[in-house]
Structure formats: C-alpha cells, structure tokens
Amino acid sequence: MHKLYPSVLFLFAALLLASCASSVHIRALAPAAVPMPANLQSVATANRIIPNSRREKFFDVLEGAFTGEGPGVDRAGADECVNVVGQALANNSYRFKVTQAQLQLQGRGREFFLPPLEPRYIQSLCRRTQVDGLVVLEAFDSDMALSRTNGTRTVKDKEGKEHQIPTVRVDMVMKVVTGFRTYGAAQGFVLDQARQEEQLAFSGEGDTYGAALRQLPPPEVCIRRVAQRAGDGYARRIAPSYVDLNRNFFTTAKKDALMKQAATRAEAGDWAGAETIWQQAARNLHPKIAGRAFYNLAVASEVRGDLPGAIEWAKKSAFTCNNGQAKSYLRVLNDRLVAQNVVQEQLKSVPTH
C-alpha cells in the first residue's frame, strides 16, 4: 500500500473542499524575518551604488553595451528598487515612519558588497535627515539570459490546404541581485545585511528571431519589474507587512438548506448573518452537516480577526465531527496565531496611532 505524504493529503482535501465551496480573501500582518530594535522608529532610504570614479562609470557603460541592457539601466533599476523599499515600508506596514528623503551615496565598486559605512558617517546622515536609521541599497546587479526554441504553426492557403510555417520562441530570464544593509543611528552599526536574488521570465514569439525579440519588453522595463520585487522583499524582511490569504468555506450540505442560505449571506458580505445561520446548522445531528457548519464558523471567526475563536470552532469540526479539511485548517490557524503573537511583539514599541 502506498503512503500518501501530508502535502498530497492537504492538496486532496483542498480540491475536495473547493468542489463545493466559495472563498473569501483576508488581509493579515505577517511578521518580519529580522526584528529591528525598539529604538529604531524612523528610517530614510539611500542608494549607494552610484559609481565614485570615472573608471567605474566607464565599466558600467561598457557592461551595459556588452550585455545589451543599455547604459544606465542598472542605475535606473537601483533607483526603482530604493523607491519601492521606501514605499513598501511606508504603505505596507506601520512599523516605521519613513521620511521622503532618498539619499544618493557614492561608493559602487567592482566587488559586490562594499565595506559597511563608517559609524560616524551613519550618525551624521541620520542627524541630518532626523531619523533613527538608514535602509541602504549597497549592491545591485542584473543579468539577462536568452534562449531560443524553434517551432511551427499551421496556416491554410486560399485553397484550404494546410502549410507549416517556421516560428521562433524567445524566452528571457531577467535576474537581479541586490544587497541591502540597515544601519542604526544609536551606534552607527549594521543591524541587518541581506543578499537577495529575484528573477522574472518573459517570452515572445514570431516568425523570425528578430520578430520574437520585438515581442519582449525592453530590458530596462524588465529590470525595473524585478527590482520592484527586490525592494518589496527587503521591506518585508525588516518590517511586519500585510499579506493576502484565501480561505474556502462550504456552500452546501446534503439535506440541509441552511448551509446554502448562509453561504449566500457570506458571499454578499453579511458574515454576521451567515454566522447566525451556521450556528443553527451546527445543531444538526448529522456529523457531516455539523462538521461543515463548524468549519464555516471557524472561517467566519478568522474573517473577524478572532483567531482563538476560529481555532475552537475548527477543533469541533475536526475532532467532534471528524472533518478532514478542518484538521488541515486547524494547523494553518495555529501557525497564524503564533505569527500574530510574533507580530504583536515586533510592533509593541510602535506608538499608538
């Protein structure tokens, strides 16, 4: 007998639930991967990849011409990356107060990561911009890879006869490697350092290689899009940030009209009305109907932000009514409760707003 792995069982349960379910989206704060000290309340962003010599500027132009990305493309991508990390810290979290100042610092060299900025220099910059710390992009490099695939497409002539026409598909993978450091003003030291890789794939198709290439976005557009992901990713590393969650809930149960009535309320946004009906359905003596009602009450509690309540309803569905989907959902809820406690700990130093 073959053994089913937990991931396979979870997927099977999700597919089973989706066949007779609707869904709701929930926004929730996810904890930062790297917590920042409580005295770091305000930050400014800075770009440190500006070449500090004519020689480095020459190499940047030469690299752009050699790779086909064009001169100044990495610089524009780095600027976009810094813009996005500042926007994400300001808009997707309330952990930091972010100033509008975006500092431009010279310092790019051939090595990927330069030595950290001097503590006194950091303290001077922080005093000048009136912040507690700096989030600095200190390394940025892009790499473009192209691959070609030959194929055919079928066309009909005027007589209806089919012909095979050669086609070309070009796939481009744009990779961006970034290096961020976060400095604290108190001692001027590095609080976090991260090297990140992000990439996106793009494709174009045409009757010739040149035609396929023309279907691709310009390299500078691709670099900016990947740079945006990198900036958003680093913001999420150092600050709790909102994520979108999707939850399914049962819409039907055989021989019980209440489940359908409640689902109609929930789909219309009337979760309070849906909960009232699901509580009635939960009194059904049939364990399958009660189990689905308990499950839906767990989802409704999570929608309201009541994770302990959601866990209690999920337990009833899983253990009282042996609902398999509820057992998987219970693990998700317990993980969310742990994450929520971490977020509260990370945000306890933030002034009430």
UniProtKB/TrEMBL annotation:
Recorded superkingdom: Bacteria
Pfam families tied to this protein: DUF6340
Entry keywords, A to Z: Signal
Signal peptide range in chain numbering: 1-21
Protein name as catalogued: Tetratricopeptide repeat protein
Organism: Hymenobacter ruricola
